Amino acid sequence: MIAAAxxxxxxxxxxxxxxxxxxxxxxxxxxxxxxALPLVHIDSGLTTQQQAILWQIRLPRVVLGAxxxxxxxxxxxxxxGVFRNPLADPYLLGVSSGAGLGATVMIVAGAAGAGMGSxxxxxxxxxxxxxxxxxxxxLGRSVGGGRGEVVIILAGVAVAAFANAAQTFVQQRYQDSLxxxxxWLLGRLSTDGWSDVTLVLPYVAVTIAVILLFRRTLDVxxxxxxxxxxxxxxxxxxxLLLVAVATLGTxxxxxxxxxxxxxxxxxxxxxxxxxxxxxxxxxxLSVLAGASFLVxxxxxxxxxxxxxxxxxxxxxxxxxxxxxxxxxRRGTGMQ
Length: 335
Known about the structure:
This protein has 335 residues and is mainly α. The chain contains 14 helices and no strands. Helix 1 packs parallel to helix 13 and helix 4 packs parallel to helix 6. The mean pLDDT is 82.
């Protein structure tokens, strides 16, 4: 099943590379991609400018979308597994809100596109996400003694609410930057070259590798901490490690893509409907399905109103919200 899902994901990524508003013919794009393979020489007929569009704009965007989608989906599945709560996701733990506050502060400070350069906003968003989840964890431990997953989630709700309030206050104080702030908050995958991909790739690789490594441990923990401890597992340590890793990956991708909602909830639930709650299949399939979902959403975002683009967060919300309501209505999920 994983091999079939990987083949589908590859087909989605290839299709997304063929589609765009720049008028490149799919046959020429296929020929150009084939020409890059070893021992293959095909004249694609693309001009130098068209080659630049393909290799420096369209292809990095598809790869970035796949990395962001895969990370958000597997992080959501990991959060839901360690907290045994089907609603747990980066938003609920304050990661996204903290990243949004950090990016907003940096944008209104005038660092976006000047001063600190394009790295200013991603660095601030990354720091905001890390600080928010650290505050969530410390607040949860101080209130609940670190004994209850529900207390940590409620602490995350409080931290997210505080970050959102602070973000709103900053926006009201600096209304000249509202358009730039909203453009980031609604999510975007537009990139000029491979810099964003190379920036997040190490974090994405570590996040996915570590979470997949604990897929069998999560299955054991799903029956309860006492039962897991009787088998030699230390649930508190595993929970802390996975939350830290998932947060690291989420903060990294959010720092370059902005806030893209529903991926961390919708994709794991959709996969769970097909293969059941076992993490041995759920986690790797969430990686592949998350990559496919966000790349397809980006294709819709950049073509449905071509040459204008919709923020990708609008597309994921339009797809994810009805799907999530259907899931809730059917009473499915982790039960």
